[in-house]
Amino acid sequence: MSESSDALFKVWEEQQSEIRHMQTQRAMLTNAIIVVAVAGIGFVVQRGLTASMLGVTLPLAGLGLYGALASAKYYEMIRNCERRAKILIDRIDESIAGLDLDSVFVEASRQRRLETSRFIYFSQMHRLWIGLHLSVALTGGVLSAVAIA
To answer: How many other C-beta atoms are found inside a 10 Å radius of the C-beta of residue 109?
Structure first.
């Protein structure tokens, strides 16, 4: 491999590392939100759902909305890294004759699609993360509405 290919590959590795780091951060944020949400809901169940519990239920809704927004932002940043990584792979592919990495990725994607159910294949992970956070927000909102009523 030439020096330029080595440099491109090194930058590609850094992009992959950044993607893994952001995915780990998103998972840790979600875990923290879920732990706080479960603790808040447990506190409300233990004390009873009264208007005084709005101090727990309203922040729960806000926390869920924050998680959904943060997950969407992480997805945007991850997609940006993936685009840069794809450009780097294309450049590496161009610089090394006969490598044809793009066909490897296309074939792997085709095989994955054949082996996976349609529902799972077309389900996008970031939407599941956002949906999880929105369910926390909805739970906080519904508990707040019931506490007020």
So the answer is: 11
Task: Give me the residue spans of the domains in the chain.
Answer: 3-99+126-148
As given in the structure block, the two tokens for residue 67 are 């998680």
Cβ contact 13:86 at 8 Å: no
pLDDT tens, position by position, 56-86: 999 999 999 999 999 999 999 999 999 999 8
Q: What tokens does 63 get?
A: 């926390």
1-to-11, 12, 84 alpha-carbon distances in Å: 15, 15, 21
Phi-psi region of 12 (alpha: psi -120 to 50; beta: other; left: phi over 0): alpha
**Entry pTM:** 0.84
